[in-house]
Amino acid sequence: MPLIAIVVAALAIGFEQLVQWKYGPMGIIAFVALTVGIKARNTMIGGIGAVILVMLFAQSG
Length: 61
Description:
Elements: H1 2-40, H2 43-60
Helix pairs in contact: 1-2
Keywords: Membrane, Transmembrane, Transmembrane helix
């Protein structure tokens, strides 16, 4: 079980670094809002983060 947690944490950190590198500060704000919304079970904050991320992903494509 600890190995799975380490792998998941490494993937999350890697994804966060990718978002920061490609989408800058707004990407990090969106990723943090999504993460906080999921952990706090607050759909409004999570939804805002998800919408911002989708808009950033759509803009770059």
